[in-house]
Amino acid sequence: xxxxxxxxxxxxxxxxxxxxxxxxxxxxxxxxxxxxxxxxxxxxxxxxxxxxxxxxxxxxxxxxxxxxxxxxxxxxxxxxxxxxxxxxxxxxxxxxxxxxxxxxxxxxxxxxxxxxxxxxxxxxxxxxxxxxxxxxxxxxxxxxxxxxxxxxxxxxxxxxxxxxxxxxxxxxxxxxxxxxxxxxxxxxxxxxxxxxxxxxxxxxxxxxxxxxxxxxxxxxxxxxxxxxxxxxxxxxxxxxxxxxxxxxxxxxxxxxxxxxxxxxxxxxxxxxxxxxxxxxxxxxxxxxxxxxxxxxxxxxxxxxxxxxxxxxxxxxxxxxxxxxxxxxxxxxxxxxxxxxxxxxxxxxxxxxxxxxxxxxxxxxxxxxxxxxxxxxxxxxxxxxxxxxxxxxxxxxxxxxxxxxxxxxxxxxxxxxxxxxxxxxxxxxxxxxxxxxxxxxxxxxxxxxxxxxxxxxxxxxxxxxxxxxxxxxxxxxxxxxxxxxxxxxxxxxxxxxxxx
Length: 499
Ligand SMILES: Cc1cc2nc3c(=O)[nH]c(=O)nc-3n(C[C@H](O)[C@H](O)[C@H](O)COP(=O)(O)OP(=O)(O)OC[C@H]3O[C@@H](n4cnc5c(N)ncnc54)[C@H](O)[C@@H]3O)c2cc1C
Fold this sequence. Notes:
alpha+beta; D-Amino Acid Oxidase, Chain A, domain 2; 15 helices; globular; binds flavin-adenine dinucleotide
């Protein structure tokens, strides 16, 4: 529980907004969540929850609910996208998950959002649908007292506010922009908003497991489990979700969609599956497409990293896609939302007086600004590795076959690259080992622990220093500038992960 409770407005009830609402309200902050849509998204598609994301849900007491809604991934089978040939089957050893402290789940996007929504209500979040924010108003001396909750703790008479499309104005101590990649808050906090279309489109859909199990052509999918198909500049995957009652699948294709075809502001749109080009897809993938009448589609954009995630003097914070847009259906999209929510709430749980707020928000920025690019660069590398063209793809497949023959270990960070004890990469296993090791390193991260570490190493120190300088405990905002100046000399060098 945070000793000093804030009035917090969160813009956007996607995964990042719901996750931060759950975490902050659990710590006693008064949270109101504003969503433009009339209800939670009900689009069919699935999302991966790697161990680092699952650990956050476990911390919030949601592990049981997660198990009822998702499926655990214990194996991965890599296949050729065109022919369907199995290239390598990996069984993840239980040690992998023991070491990382979590599990690897796959869940329907709507199921995860529903789960977080129910939890947000349970911990007392006030959620308003049909509440589109049309303007962000920075704090000023003339701002009237909050209509949300009074009195505001941090900036009496000077908090930031938002205006809704209805004309209503809401005030708070802190406003969190969780409003996706076209965030209304982002240009205020960080002006760089450019994006580059990668030329790839992502489709995701859900298929009833019974229809898969009853089809002889799908027999080995049922037997071998989670499957990834690797093709030339495209790839696909199909894990089970909904406690194995459904299959989800993702398909990434090169596709030159016209500008006006990229959907609503979120970029996600429901389309008939007959829209998808099928040439070059093996028969199992075609079966998935035939079995899902509609798919959820998003065009893939690359965005530059934001430099500024927070504007403490005005009380603004960015989270999720608004802060750090990632490619659609990325493995670590969920990680980014859940980890950020956990880091932010853990830091703010130490808030005892208003003067601390700035340094805690800058700590959030520092921790996330170093972690989030690691998550997206992994995704970019992973995607290019799964969709290598021509001779590169052939060489990758040969490496994987060779590694499969040598019973390549699925615990590579504990053993040598090629499993034969010499780690010389003579079977091409070294690149693969590096790839797996990076996965393991990312999975081992613990967001809550990272934020607590910051508090112990730097937060407490700063507290003591401020107290010595100012024994009445009323540190001024001038400390904030000192903190910013120090960022390059210590704060950014905090190790973010202990794997
Ligand atoms: C409809 C939808 C379906 C998706 N399906 C999948 C999927 O199947 N698989 C997958 O891997 N990922 C999916 N995603 C993406 C995934 O949820 C996100 O990319 C990622 O998890 C980060 O979420 P976010 O909360 O930061 O942003 P988003 O998920 O984009 O959520 C932003 C939210 O803010 C709301 N919003 C935007 N502007 C305003 C405003 N001015 N005022 C109030 N509210 C506003 C939006 O309506 C939206 O609900 C989907 C996203 C959406 C929006």
